[in-house]
């Protein structure tokens, strides 16, 4: 083969590469967003941002009728996410009638439609839902751990942060923090249990009602395993010596200067909150007047020994965050979710299979007003949370969160 022939063949190959076209997009289609039933037929979802997140991300604005005219998207699987926030007074004015919502409450109207297959033009009519937003939110979960100063796995620095997203003082007194079962395969996945969550560990905050306030725009720090300055052992870790609470059993040791968040129900012999460094970790904040220790305890299906999980009804949950485990080669398996979509329609995840990479999952800031931050709350961790490599407690002015 001559040199000229070789050059000619190379030229044809390069020409073919240059002539490759991008994947063909869909034909135009419509997205119609329908307000919740209580709004009647005369209120429309107008001038609101809509996000289609997939292999390519798109952003749209609804018209005066709550419609989006999508010219074309790359065929694929998308999450369709949108939401708007109303004050309680605005909500009551739009709904009319006698509605038991405080004027200063915050109401979210929106939807998080996950894994929607859009491979061809198809008009979609999407029903929105409304929910009164919570005062107290789980805002940060740091469970991955890190490497210590000797390059060994370090996992005792886990923490959970709870943020007051309202404009009034909130109290954690008497509220509960729960960790769902995390065995593999999932013992009680949400898809098979539409109304119940099965708790591996259960903690109750102390106080008689007003002993432990959380100021608006502030947070409390819960050391899940040890309330000390972990940077002394691991430079990339966190200082939890000033934590507001430390999880431990009633007879457990720990930092005597930090109030106890006692484990009152435990399916394991572990004396601290058993957050797994690689996940899964499904965490719930809830409140109830029922005797939680009277709730039934059950083994995994088909077993008569081993761990027993305490079954609770999902109606008591005020906030929940699903942290799935990241497989080595694929996306997290949503079939293993322990929390129902009404609690968390999505999930958070760190980038490491086993952890030890000092990553945390943290709730994004939705806006800044009156000298404070308000956090995003759409009941969808895929939209509300990001993964951070700076797990600093109480820090919300990060580039990734704003």
Main structural class: mainly beta
**Rg:** 24 Å
Question: How much of the polypeptide forms β-strand, as a percent range?
Answer: 35-45%
Described by the principal axes of the CA atoms, the overall outline is globular
Number of helices: 3
Instruction: Kindly report the oligomeric state of this protein.
Output: single chain
Major β-sheet profile: 13 strands, mixed
Terminal Cα span: 61 Å
**Uncertain segments:** 5-18
Number of individual domains:
2
- Strand tally: 27
Mean pLDDT: 90
Topology of this protein?
Blueprint: H1 3-18, E1 29-34, E2 49-53, E3 58-61, E4 67-70, E5 76-87, H2 88-95, E6 106-118, E7 124-127, E8 129-132, E9 136-142, E10 146-147, E11 153-154, E12 159-164, E13 170-171, E14 176-180, E15 196-204, E16 213-214, E17 219-223, E18 245-248, E19 260-266, E20 281-286, E21 297-299, E22 308-313, E23 317-323, E24 360-363, E25 365-369, E26 372-375, H3 381-384, E27 385-388
Parallel strand pairs: 1-7, 17-18, 18-19
Antiparallel strand pairs: 1-4, 2-3, 2-5, 5-6, 6-8, 9-12, 9-24, 10-11, 12-17, 13-16, 14-15, 14-20, 15-19, 15-22, 20-23, 21-22, 24-27, 25-26
Relevant terms:
mainly beta, Immunoglobulin-like, five-stranded antiparallel beta sheet, 402 residues, 2 domains
Word description of this protein:
The protein has 402 residues and is mainly β. It has 2 domains: 29-132, Immunoglobulin-like (Sandwich); 136-388, no CATH class. 7% of the residues lie in helices and 35% in strands. The chain is built from 3 helices and 27 strands. It has helices at 3-18, 88-95, 381-384; strands at 29-34, 49-53, 58-61, 67-70, 76-87, 106-118, 124-127, 129-132, 136-142, 146-147, 153-154, 159-164, 170-171, 176-180, 196-204, 213-214, 219-223, 245-248, 260-266, 281-286, 297-299, 308-313, 317-323, 360-363, 365-369, 372-375, 385-388. The strands form 6 sheets. Strands 9, 12, 14, 15, 17, 18, 19, 20, 21, 22, 23, 24 and 27 form a 13-stranded mixed sheet that branches. Strands 3-2-5-6-8 form a 5-stranded antiparallel sheet. Strand 10 (146-147) and strand 11 (153-154) form a beta hairpin. It is globular and about 60 Å long. It starts with a helix and ends in a 14-residue tail after the last strand. The relative contact order is 0.14.
